[in-house]
Amino acid sequence: MTFAPVDLQTPWLLYWAAAVAAVVGVSLALAGRWRERDHRRRQAAAGSHVVMRVLENTRLQRRVGYGALVLALALAVWGAVAHVQGFDALRGNVRQKYGAEVEDVRQSGSGVTVDLVHPDGTREEDQYMAVEQDGEPVYGAELVESPPIGG
């Protein structure tokens, strides 16, 4: 049997990268805005004109921050799409191997906890299912079976 590849780790890496990019983006945007206001306030208090170089620098800082926020959004969307694709591939692999439908998927580490509905209508709830490198789903008694020695 040939199984579709199931990737459960990449979406979480993308979510973490999105979170880091969001923190960087918000920090840069807020710091740029604060610097601009502070510069304008100090220059007004001193009775002098604002330094355009400082204002251009703060604008650049804010633009980089906004760019990081756009990157964070793109990474989060990419992660969500990869997450849905991974679970869809898992559902297809389970259907192919066991003939069962997956109703609920909860990820737990490199495996998942699923609720299965078999063709005869029987339900198995909260079944831990591991996913092999080739995408093959394994659960139940198959999890504890040891592979043959030497091959």
Account of the 3D structure:
This protein has 151 residues and is an alpha+beta fold. A 4-stranded antiparallel sheet has the order 1-2-3-4. Helices cover 58% and strands 18% of the residues. The model has no long low-confidence stretch (mean pLDDT 91). It contains 3 helices and 4 strands. The chain is rod-shaped.
The pLDDT mean sits at 91
Number of strands: 4
Write the element-wise H/E pattern from the N-terminal end onward.
HHEEEEH
List segments where confidence is low: pLDDT < 50 over at least 5 consecutive residues: none
Number of helices: 3
Helical content (DSSP H or I, runs of 4+): 55-70%
Strand order of the largest sheet: 1-2-3-4
Would you kindly provide a brief summary of this structure?
This protein has 151 residues and is an alpha+beta fold. The protein contains three helices and four strands.
